[in-house]
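Pilot study result, target chain (448 residues):
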Amino acid sequence: VVKNQAPLFAVVDLADLETTNHAPQDWFWSGYVPAGHLTYWSSHGGAGKTTLGLLLACCAAIGRDCLGKPTKEAVVCFFSAEDPRDLLLRRLQRLCRELALDYEILRERLIIIDATDFDPVLFTERRVEGMQIGTTTPTYDALARFVDTKQVDLLIVDNASDTFGADEIDRAMVRTFCRSLVSLVKARNGAVVLMAHVDKATSRAGKGLVNSESYSGSTAWHNSARSRLFLLETAPGALELQHQKCNLGPKQPPLAIEWPHDGIPRVQSVAAGPMQGYLDDNDTRALLRLLHEFHGRGEHVATATQSRRHAVALMSGEKTFPKRKPAEVFDLLRGAERRGWIEREAYKDSNRKPHERWVLTVSGEQFAEIPAGSRSARSSAQIVLEDGAPQSESRRRFAPSAPSAPSGVRTAPEPSAGSGAPSAPTAQRGVWGVEQRTSGAPDQEPKS
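Predicted structure:
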């Protein structure tokens, strides 16, 4: 028997089953961020994770709903190891302006730490007597004193790659790092949100499978978190927040988020019944106008959803493009085809390679309210089939397709020389922990 050895485990007294009434699980962000535990939030770089993390920080600091989910009012600390002060303040100013937040209240309960000009590593590894061991750093110690002094309830760390200085595939290292973060707020039953980057391959895997392994490195990243979120960019200006793990309650369904130009992320509006039909018609009208505009300048929108020139890939950068998921855009186009507003047209490019594109019909141009003066020449009811016989649109629509084109595809007459066919487009203030006093108190504090 080894005397004076530190205990290695503890036995749970089952008498507590009768004598103790455990309180329900508390949440700092309802369903997503559990109190007393670590939440791992990953995405590919540039998806908007930091802005959403700041949005959560602002909402929790004043107890306001975040993306439609309640938050618990808390003292929040956002530890940035990636983005510097100026960039953080610019994002915060936009959030405050759009949400009409009270600056004075926010300054009392939100703390922003910029560690980018210092050593932001909170956990590292070193060799002791021939063995690699994990250990916290002086930066971690300074953060621990700061969090305790400020009574921080919710700590958001951005991000894992800049604060974890050990081997990311070493389970023991990862597990110890995650536990050390939770210990920073454990005394107050607080919560930690750890932001993390994933590589492109991992990010792409999340596009078709909600429960994909959207984290890099050891499975300990997944296992050490009680809740795990993954932010997926589905299209420019469109995001999806996936809840891929939760040990403390039901996983939340995927949350569709839209990010308007010059705005802030918000829950994508969902309407039902007649209102949904009205919104669908408006979005379809916007798509048809863009199709007309692009086709008129020789930028043809492919009908195939796997093409590099389909509607989302080619037109999503336009201001009037509907804020929809790609699948919804394709559904709107198929609906427009069923209603006779667009049709498929076979054509050949400059290399004589066959393709298929969307073009508007006469009724489609009318539905899209395209001015008569800017409508295509084909809308004058002279629609030419391959046999050269002009027919009205209604007769042509039900006429048999030409043998050289798939069913339902109109073949465009090839332009002759000089026909005028469109050509392709031309192409050190607030430093904490630098000078440590014997009492552990800082000289200055970071400003939010």
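One observation from the pilot: The chain has 14 helices and 19 strands. A full batch analysis is planned for the follow-on phase.
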